[in-house]
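hiii so um. not sure if this is the right channel but i have a protein structure encoded as tokens and i wanna go backwards to a sequence. like what aa goes where. can anyone help
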């Protein structure tokens, strides 16, 4: 017996699995961006070469935040 798909709103279309996945990925990306804006936190215990390689993946905004933090640590 096949179950009929329903939505909370009777006139709404039910999303496909692919659409639901894409929607969740967009929501995750928004949450990640917001997290970076609120309080960026990085706790790493990795070889320096791995850290340096990871820097290549940072955006200009992230690099600027990192630069500020490093300058503060060097001034202390």
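sure thing!! here u go:
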């Amino acid at each position: 017996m096949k179950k009929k798909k329903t939505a909370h709103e009777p006139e709404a279309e039910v999303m496909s699995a692919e659409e639901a996945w894409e929607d969740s990925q967009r929501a995750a990306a928004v949450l990640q961006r917001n997290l970076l804006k609120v309080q960026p936190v990085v706790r790493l215990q990795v070889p320096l070469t791995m850290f340096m390689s990871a820097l290549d993946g940072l955006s200009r905004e992230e690099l600027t935040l990192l630069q500020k933090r490093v300058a503060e640590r060097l001034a202390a």
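oh and The chain has one domain: 17-75.
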